[in-house]
Amino acid sequence: MNNEKLKFVIVGHVDHGKSTLIGRLLYDTNSLPEGRLEEIKQLCESLGKDIEFGYVMDHLEEERDQGITIDTAQTFFNTEKRDYVIIDAPGHVEFVKNMISGASQAEAAVLIVDAEEGIKEQTKRHAYILGMLGLSQVIAVINKMDLAGYGRERFESVKKDLLDFLSNINIRPSCVIPISAKNGDFIAGRTGNMDWYKGPTLLEALDTFRTKESANNKPLRYVVQDVYSFDKRIIAGRVESGMIRKGDKIRVLPSGEETKVKSVEEYLKNVTEAEAGKSTGITTEDKLFIDRGNVIVGLDDLPAVTNRIKANVFWMDRMPFKKGESLRFRCATQEVNCEIEKISRVINSSTLELIAEDADEIKNREVASIIIKTDRPVVVENFNRMEELGRFVLGREDTCAGGIITEMVC
Amino acid sequence: MLIIFAIDALEYTLVEEFNCNNLKQKFYGKTNIREFSEPKTMVLWSSFMTGKNMEKEIVAKGDREMWNTRLDFNDTFFKQFKNPKIIDLPGFNYIKEQHEMERKLLKEYFDAKDEEGKKKVRTAYNNLSFEHHRKIKQEFSEALKGDYDFVLGYFSVADVIGHLNFGNRTMMKMIYRDLDEIAGTIKEPYIVLSDHGMEAVGIFGDHSNYGFWSTGFKDLGSPRITDFAGMIKGLSDVKL
Predict the structure, then answer these.
(1) Number of domains comprising chain B
(2) Residue B51 sits in a domain of what CATH number?
(3) Closest to A86 in 3D by CA, of A94, B144, A78
């Protein structure tokens, strides 16, 4: 096994078996802490039931809440090929927020559908968000095949409905797998319950996915978080992409001023460079006015500095947006006031039905194509080119929408 | 047939948190038990079945004797039914030996001097409660198929297990989900009713000062536990 790590989310309608699938994946890959499964098994027996893998997650979450395990929202397992990280999305709203804000950093997704219930509203909404974010590595699993008598006919019917829907939003799952997370059919191995299915197991299918291209190879995007004045003036920030090295010529945006990196600063360490994903400090040759929200880039391959942006947003606040309202626009560490200048199209994220064109409002769970006008220039990019500066959230007191930038407007 | 799914210490907030849709039904809320000075199981269920506040009478018996309360059938609203089936209800016909043993073990737990001793007693206590729960579940399930016009099944597992393990969320979630599944098997109109809820005291649980109710057919607002006797009398004549 190499050091490769693939992060993925499991999404789908509530009660379609997400927790059970996670529990089963951990069990089948021997990734559960010792004794945990026995406790769950014993409790299930006490209640006169077969083991329910869904409770494994509850147990792990409880330990996290009590501070027994350190990580807060990620679950790990590995196959012979590589390590996997399952990004936890505790609820529908959290999932949407995490996916759009980029907190989840998912590289792939498993879309789970109950064989008996078929595709439901949340299946569609979650799939829509995967499509909107351009997540191309998707596996669909039709779960609870045991309750459907392991019947091929039922599988094919749900598969057809699902593929019909997904094709409308440009998602092409690499495979659709009939599974029973409860009984372990086609998760890690074949159990003989569905001999008619000749495709891969879920783990085999996951192993075919590619991990993201290292962000080190992309152009430099260093997002300024703060500036501290000690004996020297240290700019603190995060390398979202590329590498930052001592001696590099850099440009500060939006001002456009240029200088050189004098030093890369890390506490108690002598370093000369920092790679993507690293939060680090730098000093510059010249004393420029630099502030939180600025983006430091190289001299080539520049992002846009603009105050008008074309974007797709997913509204996730009960209070609808009405044209004329001022909102906060947050992208990386940039935060400015903005207005929505135009609502070109509003779509129902479940049915994909066009609700309105040139609309005046966006309601909860609707997706809209909009033009945003910020009150100051912001440093942004097309999401498909550079996710880090291509996603944003809109807020009142709390986040009310998340979106991706599709185009700059001149 | 009218069914009462009587659950000791079913906590309103957990029913919501664990999304127990069958326990919630269409209408649900908290019962008002503020007229009682303390949320005592025996007092509350006795008041429920007689339709009057029995606190004075029950408490006067003293802590030990109170558990021997056996109200007369004719003093309860059960008498209006031709063929009622009541399972394990405190103050009426509950299985004394079982609940005595639970209380004995609970005392032993708090008397135990070391962690090892406590662990042993906790396991015995939990096992005893779960075994009883399986029996009651079975009896309730059979009663639902029987020729009764009224069935009341009393489930103590959330209370008994909760007292020693309320801080164990996974265990409580599994119990609530199991109770929810039981509710899901009821095909006739039913009322879910608890005497009181439960609040966390560290890892332990103590009675909270409100109960839980739900129905699939009527919003009851904020009923007192003594209101149910009259309400059920009315319901038995109505085709639900």
Answers:
(1) 1
(2) 3.40.720.10
(3) A78
